[in-house]
Amino acid sequence: MQTFLEFEKPIAELEGKIEELRHLTDAGDLNIADEVGKLQAKVEKLLQTTYAKLTPAQKVQVARHPNRPHALNYISALVTDFTPLAGDRAFAEDGAIIGGLGRFRGRSVVVIGQEKGHDTETRVKHNFGMAKPEGYRKAQRLMDLAARFHLPVVTLVDTAGAYPGVGAEERGQAEAIARSIERCLRLPVPIVSVVIGEGGSGGAIAVAAADRVLMLEHAVYSVISPEGCASILWRDPQMAQDAAVALRMTAQDLKQLGVIDQIVSEPMGGAHRSPADTMTAVADRVQAALDDLRALDPAELKARRRQKFLDMGAHGLGA
Questions:
Q1: CATH code at 65?
Q2: pTM of this structure
């Protein structure tokens, strides 16, 4: 069942009319194929105009859309012979980070993804995509495996941020994130990250300090959520729309600032309207990135990756 966002109400009304007319046609009451075609053309035009001028706050809504494909969808569709690996070998298994070995278009890879879940049961199971320290330590263990067996790493970023609970802090959340970033930067094998939905704070960068950072057209990536920023700066969550603008968190802003490398176009109306096409587009870009990086030796890979992140500080906000 299609879920519509607040700004999609005119689209929802038109699609509701189309559905009603199709039911009439199915019942054999009258032939209204022409009318359905006209309404469908209006929907496509409205989708095009609406999504061409999304505000940053609206892009946040699209990035969080419940029907948007998540990490497990990508892994299921794009990775064959996937063998999940669990646990950090220190404390526990973390459901927010899914990782393992598999084949991506014939190439053996290590895949690490942040999974939010699609319904109440799976969201609780995966802790809404918010990893605890053991999740980041599991990611480090997987990166070590990749280095040992000379396998490229692909990460799928989709989290509101790392889990902020007392238990997580007691077990060294900040240290785990910092170590994960360090492990990314020191990997002697290629690493490609894709921001597929919401890239929030250190919880995202912990698995996204990569040679190539790709980002879906309507994904967001920032140091904090708009709501969190508004609460801190203005002490008013209602200022979230202004915060979304100030944070420069859209793919277009981040490409201009040099924080990401490529924007992956989404189907008209967002990834949630055509998950299969979205995942194919992501796979094509990931494959191209891995092909480009394959020829680089480990020392050059690490040097370029380190310099890439050092150079980000040279980009002014007015760039």
A1: 3.90.226.10
A2: 0.91
